[in-house]
Amino acid sequence: MYDFSQARTHMMDSQILTSGVISPAVVDAFQTVPREIFIPEQYQGVAYQDEDIEIAKGRYLMEPMVHAKILEALKPKSTDIVLDIACGSGYSAAILSSIVTTVVALESHKDMIDHAQNMWNAHDMCNIVTIEGDITKGSPENAPYNIIIINGAVSEVPTDILDQLAPDGQLVAIVKGENEVMGHVTLFKRNGELNEYSSHALFSAGCPHLPELAPKPAFKF
């Protein structure tokens, strides 16, 4: 039988810890949450490899190193409320569950929400709120959020989603242009109470586009 525990330890040692991730809460979450249960059975053997894994059409689990470095950069606190956009099968929200006070997990695919909810329930993750809805709109009814994470590459971050940040709140997304292999993990921050935002690129990553937030084809005559 495949030893997932050993594979998880190898992921930690060879991908996450060597990439500069040192936050005890983040390290503990990646070490303890079983990534394989959030992946279709036929792909579970590669659950801990350093690559993005397609879990459904248009939904991917980000490469572990990229995912962990995003959380390290955000420095989430135990009092934070987080909006997890395109939560897919639930792994990203599961990782956040032990780190923050509440995770609002937004997904448009009901079958994925149902699977995610079953996995969260099985592991007593009771601070995750599931929202079925349009991922391009965020979840304004539950705003504001201290942190917003978009799980996948986008051509740009909709202003409607940025406006759901609390004062000094942070959003991370992989911003990538059309036909580009690599994008930039970009951190956006709301400047106090103002509807003004600063942003800067953190590092490169190659996660595929979310179909709903991908570049729109240019009109040609």
Briefly characterize the structure.
The protein is 26% helix and 28% strand. It is built from six helices and nine strands.
Explained architecture:
- There is one protein chain.
- By secondary structure, the chain is α/β, with parallel strands linked by helices.
- It has helices spanning 4-16, 24-32, 64-74, 91-97, 110-122, 159-162, and strands spanning 53-56, 59-61, 81-85, 102-107, 128-132, 145-154, 165-175, 183-190, 197-205.
- The chain has one domain (4-213): Rossmann fold (3-Layer(aba) Sandwich), CATH 3.40.50.150.
- The strands form two sheets. Strands 5-4-3-6-7-8-9 form a seven-stranded mixed β-sheet, with helices on one face. Strands 1-2 form a two-stranded antiparallel ribbon.
- The mean pLDDT is 95.
Task: Quickly list its features.
single chain; 221 residues; alpha/beta; Rossmann fold; seven-stranded mixed β-sheet; 6 helices; 9 strands; 28% strand
